[in-house]
Amino acid sequence: MPAVELKVSTRVTAGNAVMTIVGEIDLYTAPRLQAEFARLLEDGPSRVVIDMSGVEFCDSTGMNVLLSALKRLRERGGGLEVAAPRPAVRKILQVTGLDSVFVVHDQVPAELLTEQSG
Known about the structure:
By secondary structure, the chain is an alpha/beta fold.
């Protein structure tokens, strides 16, 4: 079975983080994503937006990783938002009811795309 690449990059500005995920989130790649969240949450951003425009597939394991990150962020008064999910991922969010748990954006919010200086 070919190894599916999961690329995760994160940019933190002014207490907000944008995590860009490319690839498939499943049983095999979820631990990598979990580790990225653990590292990110140590830095303490209160708002995390996940750019899922590059995610082709996300199974229940992947959704559980997102839910556990949301829970940890909410415990400290923050939040986790999903941006730009592809139709397949959006459908999973709708079928599972998670589209009402996460704030879902059609694209990464513009205020997070501009580099803030200071």
